[in-house]
Amino acid sequence: MLTEMLLQFLWKFRLFAHPVVRTSDGETVEIIHPGFQNFDAGPDFFNAKVKIGDTMWAGNVEIHHKTSQWNDHRHHLDKAYNNVILHVVMEHDDCVVTENGRVVPVMVMPVMPELENRYREMMDQSQWLLCSGSRFTLPEVELSVWLESLLIGRLEDRCSKIQQLLTYFHGDWDQVFFVMLARAFGFGVNSDAFEALALLTPVRRLMQHADQIEQLEAMLMGQAGFLDERVGDDYQDRLSSEYLFFKEKYSLKTMGSHRWKFLRLRPKNFPTVRLAQLAQWVHRHPQVTGAILGVQRVDDLRARFQIVASEPWLTRYRFGDRDVPHEKTLGVSSQNLLLINGIIPFLFAYARHRGDSHGMDLAIDMMAQLPPERNHIVHDWEARGGIVACNAAQSQALIYQYNHYCLPRKCLQCRVGMGYLQSACSFQS
Q1: C-alpha span between 429 and 424 (Å, rounded)
Q2: Domains in the chain: how many in total?
Q3: DSSP assignment of 374-417, as one string?
Q4: 128, 161, 326, 327: most buried by Cβ count inside 10 Å?
Q5: Do residues 417 and 411 touch, judged by C-beta distance below 8 A?
Q6: Considering only CA atoms, which of 259, 292, 261, 260 is closest in space to residue 178?
């Protein structure tokens, strides 16, 4: 059964199977204006203008799958529906009367078979991206505009989270930035654990001891729970001694080490290595938020993250395991991901909070200067959807579309899905 949402979409864009549509009584219906869609209580479309036979009507339009749903939904008892001028349905099985006793004309909507087939395919929960690829491609200009709006949507989502953090931390931008930075250092697999660590760790304590890298590592490794289980590592023993002092002095709370994931990660991506790199970043940039505010060029921003973990990590990936000496650097691809997922969204939110439109535009420009992420979502868009992300702004947009439109099947609110359905009209002809 076709959903009412699809029927509303067809009415809104006048995508009917026949050029001439009629009421159940055989009178012609000419849609001068479909009205304005209502997403709240009341009729589905307000202020429509419709010519039925020789009479011009202005008012509201209600849409159902069956006419009998008018009474099922008790619209016949609701004065809010007295101004309905047309009831649009797929199946006509009853008469329609308003609360004040007026009979409402009924129009049975003719649906194109190809359009119906495409919609059923799009709603198939076993697949996605049926709307694009070889059968349909959104015009380049429209796609560009749509991707820009998706990027803004993704950044606005981050703004909402940052605003919640700002409220939680009573306006402390340094702490908010540290949470965003730490989450980005989780690189997806350990993002939740890194965020939990940052929520438990007062950044001002890290800033106080930023000149001592071993003290920074002690606080972060201790907070993460990596110092709880002793494994006969002299460096871990030193950090543990430092951490116990800080834990008592600052009333710190340790998180469980079970939250960290090592399985199937390359050693260079172990959370212990990433924590050591995060400690090194704070060591080099004790001003924290001040290290990134005011930066005008993406290359200069990336340079802030050209860091190497401290000397003890030359031969370690985790405590107790020794290896041949190897610098634990933060590579260019990792630097880019930190900017994409943590730093630039923070800069956008900070500028938005201050009403700084130039700062917001600068953040978007920086995103567009970075290469696109390489993950399964971006790959599928290219391989199956025929849409190639040229930069991080576009890959972020495609990720947002996948999560907010494709997965929940909001195809009728998506420009690509709408275009795919609308193209059925030309296919039909």
Answers
A1: 9
A2: 2
A3: -SHHHHHHHHTT-----SHHHHHHHHHHIIIIITTT-GGGSHHH
A4: 128
A5: yes
A6: 292
CB atoms within 10 A of CB 38: 16
Is residue 400 included in any domain, yes or no? no
Q: What is the rounded average pLDDT of the residues 53-76?
A: 95
In order, the DSSP letters of 74-127 are: TGGG-GGGTTEEEEEESB--S--B-TTSPBPPEEEPP--HHHHHHHHHHT-TT-
Contacts of residue 350, Cβ cutoff 8 Å, sequence gap at least 6: 173, 293, 356, 359
State how beta strands 55-63 and 84-89 pair.
parallel
CB 48 within 8 A of CB 62: no
Q: Minimal CA–CA distance to 419: which of 411, 428, 429?
A: 411
Tokens read off for 327 = 């610098």
Q: Is the pLDDT of residue 429 over 60?
A: no
| 63 C-beta neighbours (distance < 10 Å), count | 25
Residue 111 binned pLDDT confidence (cut-offs 50, 70, 90) = confident
* C-alpha dihedral sign at 218, 219, 225, 228: positive
Residue 22 tokens, joined: 């009629």
User: Does some domain include residue 103?
Assistant: yes
- From residue 317, alpha-carbon distances to 190, 224, 235, 335 in Å are 16, 15, 13, 19
Q: Among all chains, which residue has been given the structure tokens 């709006």?
A: 149
What pLDDT, in 10s, does the model give residues 346-393? 999 999 999 999 999 999 999 999 999 999 999 988 888 788 899 999
Other residues' Cβ atoms within 10 Å of the Cβ of residue 143: 18
Residue 28, beta-bridge partner list: 22
Asked if residues 3 and 85 have their Cβ atoms less than 8 Å apart, the reply is: no
pLDDT tier, 1 (very low <50, low <70, confident <90, very high otherwise): low
232 and 363 share one domain = yes
Using CA atoms, how far apart are residues 211 and 329, in angstroms rounded to an integer?
20
Residue numbers of the domain that contains 77: 4-111
72 and 192 belong to one structural domain? no
Residue 376 lies in a domain: no
Specify whether the CB–CB gap between 397 and 154 falls below 8 A: yes
> Tokens 């049926």 belong to which residue?
130
Burial call 192-203: b when 16+ CB within 10 Å, e when fewer: ebbbbbbbebbb
What value does the mean pLDDT of the chain take?
A: 92
Q: What is the helix, strand, coil percentage profile of the chain, to 5?
A: 55, 10, 35
Is the pLDDT confidence value at 132 over 70?
no
Nearest to 4 by CA among 63, 53, 44, 87: 63
135 pLDDT tier (thresholds 50, 70, 90):
low
Same domain as 212, residue 81:
no
